[in-house]
Amino acid sequence: MPQRAVKPQGNDLSDFGAHAPSPRMEAILRLTRRAGDSWLHKRIAFLLRGVGVRALAGQPLDVQALGVWMRLYPQQNVCEKRILFTPQYFDAQERAYLASRAHDRFVFLDIGANVGGYALSVAAQAGPGARILAIEPQPEVYERLVYNIRQNPFATVKALDCAVADRDGEITLFVHYDNRGESSIRIVSSDAAGAKITVPAKSLASIVQEEGYDHIDAIKLDVEGAEDVILEPYFRTMPEALWPKAILIEEAPQRWSVDLIGLLKARGYREVLRTRQNLILERP
Predict the structure, then answer these.
(1) DSSP secondary-structure letter at 242?
(2) CA-to-CA distance for 163 and 204, rounded, in angstroms?
(3) Of 40, 63, 204, 227, whose CA is between 20 and 30 Å from 55?
């Protein structure tokens, strides 16, 4: 298959506020963010969101969303588009679950952190003694993640630029052509089949040992079908004291090479929340 280049976009690292919304954009944001949960409200919000993305013509916006400050690029990244225009629809049940469990010593690993939506919203709920690790392998997206972390007063969030896999070393990351959030160490889309980069990789066990955690409250994995590659060797090799109390994953059994849900249930996990895309399992 011929190599397909990833569209370069580049990041603007100027001072926060340089991309404040114009009056027109503020009006669009007010309407999209106030939209309710009905089918009609969502259709109107999505139509206005499309208008807003086109009006930005590739430029980012500096805004408050999910209770934190972020510079968001809604082009080529569905995650950023959702957080910018319709944060009320951004995994609301999942984030509410994490917020209800957050406490002063909360340890949270965000694997596939993108630009920090989960990591930063958890940091806003957890106390100053929390430890939050945001892991993102794509260099351009990682740079945005670090930028967003720096705009907020949390000393609890650390960023790590690597892929999480079943081994340490280097690995090929397949980058989705139009949506950076669908990139994976597995080919999961024809749009990602020819766009690839080499990135450093670490096993989850290596990361946990290097960070020196004595417990893990929750892990979120958004790795587009590579959840089994990460979790199966972790549970096979790590002591029970370091098994996370809760695991949030995108349910994708058709992409997995093992029965991951069966593996987790055999280790005492039970399903506590199922949404349209995600599953949360908890271990008493």
Answers:
(1) G
(2) 10
(3) 40
Tell me phi and psi for residue 62, to 5 degrees. Answer: -100, 115
Q: How far apart are CA 204 and CA 233, in angstroms?
A: 9
Residue range 218-247, pLDDT digits in tens: 999 998 788 999 999 999 999 999 999 999
In this prediction the pTM is 0.90
Q: Are 66 and 90 in contact (CB under 8 A)?
A: yes
d(CA 241, CA 56): 48
92-147 confidence digits (pLDDT tens): 999 999 999 999 999 999 999 999 999 999 999 999 999 999 999 999 999 999 99
Paired tokens of 177: 């052509």
Q: Which of 145, 96, 103, 93 is nearest to 123 (CA)?
A: 103
Residue 78 near residue 183 (C-beta atoms within 8 A): no
Q: Where are the domains of the chain?
A: 23-89, 92-282
**Residue 204 and residue 228: Cα distance in Å, rounded?**
12
Q: Residue 282, SS3?
A: strand
Strands 163-165 and 61-65: unpaired
For residue 196, give Cα distances in angstroms to 8, 90, 227, 282: 13, 27, 19, 34
First to last CA, the chain: 47
3-state secondary structure of 204: helix
